[in-house]
Amino acid sequence: MSSTPLLGGSNLPAPVIMQDHPVFLRASHSAWHWIDQKALVASRGTVLGYLVAAASMTIHYKTTEEKEGTGLSNLFNFSTICSALTIIYHLITFAWTYTHMYHPEPSEVEGRFARPIIKAMSLPENMGSPRKQFYFQLFHSATTVFCFMNSVIYWLITRPHDAAAAAVTVGSEVAANLVKATSGTPLSDLLGEGWFKTFIMINLHAANSLIMVVEIFFFNSIKPALVNVGSHMLSLMGLSGAYLAWGAVGKSVTGEYPFFWMDEAQVGSKEAVSLYSIGFVLLAPMMYILMHGFIGIREILTRPGNRTDR
Fold first, then answer.
1. What angle do CA 85, 116, 124 make, to 5 degrees?
2. Which residues cross the membrane (predicted)?
3. How far, in Å, CA of 93 to CA of 24, rounded?
């Protein structure tokens, strides 16, 4: 079985359609020659194992130790949605990479039960379909962009606001020190909460973004969607708006908003809520550009004339 970064083949779409290889194959092959298929399968399996273990720990923390919010409110939490998207994405790409390496022909797998399982895990049929490629690449973009948005919003907006609100509400020296610690050293207050809560917070609001950066740089060779960049940006903005609607549903169901800035009582006016919401939607294309920046750096580093992995 070949372990080259990209497998050649017939019946692949012309480069003018989307990419020189279907995006599904590019999601299953690293751009680096020193990462062969066996190493990629092992790496993807390790990341998937971490994500599943971290998700189990997060569920335990949310249901047994977290004092704020209700269990149902987690369904509307942006970080929860980002974590779910990350797990689903890595589950799919691990399955594709594994079967493409070890079971390239699902119909030849022996076993009444094994064959349909391997077939379900395998790369989709008709990989040259522009529509299928568009939807999967949009899924990849949405997962990455939402993770980036979640990190930016939490570290730059939510945490400073929560610390300041604690100082105003409690009015204690401890709360004031919390504000000072937050503004000076970003992790000082978290490190005083015990390792478990610190791990959960960092995993929810930083690890997923880091994993998606590693995904872009090392685990796939997906190229920028230059043909559909406008459609992707509009779709991501639409998905961001759809999340705001989902958050409003969460308010009606649980009585809590997923973000403080969605609550008129906390920000002072409907106009402020509107401005925050517009900023949230506009953050999506900004993070999409950041994602393309990472892809561009990888493309430069792995270009034949500049390759450093030889």
1. 50
2. 47-63, 75-98, 134-156, 163-179, 199-222, 234-253, 273-297
3. 8
pLDDT value at position 174?
52
Tokens 């890595």 -> residue: 90
Task: Dig out the tokens for 177 from the structure.
Answer: 């020190």
d(CA 178, CA 119): 53
Kindly report, residue by residue over 93-105, the tens digit of the pLDDT: 999 999 999 999 9
CA 253, CA 40: separation in Å to the nearest integer?
42
Report which of residues 175 and 225 the model is more confident about: 225
- What is the model's pLDDT at position 177? 55
In three-state form (DSSP H/G/I as H, E/B as E, the rest C), the secondary structure along the chain is: CCCCCCCCCCCCCCCCCCCCCCHHHHHCCCCCCCCCHHHHHHHHHHHHHHHHHHHHHHHHHHHHCCCCCCCHHHHHCHHHHHHHHHHHHHHHHHHHHHHHHHCCCHHHCCCCCHHHHHHHHCCCCCCCCHHHHHHHHHHHHHHHHHHHHHHHHHHHHHHHHHHHHHHHHHCCHHHHHHHHHHHHCCCCCHHHCCHHHHHHHHHHHHHHHHHHHHHHHHHCCCCCCCCCHHHHHHHHHHHHHHHHHHHHHHHHHHCCCCCHHHCHHHHCCHHHHHHHHHHHHHHHHHHHHHHHHHHHHHHHHCCCCCCCCC
This prediction has a pTM of 0.87
Domain spans in the chain, listed from the N-terminal domain onward:
23-225
pLDDT above 70 (res 64): yes
CB 204 within 8 A of CB 61: no
Between CA 236 and CA 300, with CA 44 as vertex, the angle to 5 degrees is 65
pLDDT at 8: 44
Q: How far apart are the first and last CA of the chain?
A: 21
Rounded CA-CA distance 251/256 in Å is: 5
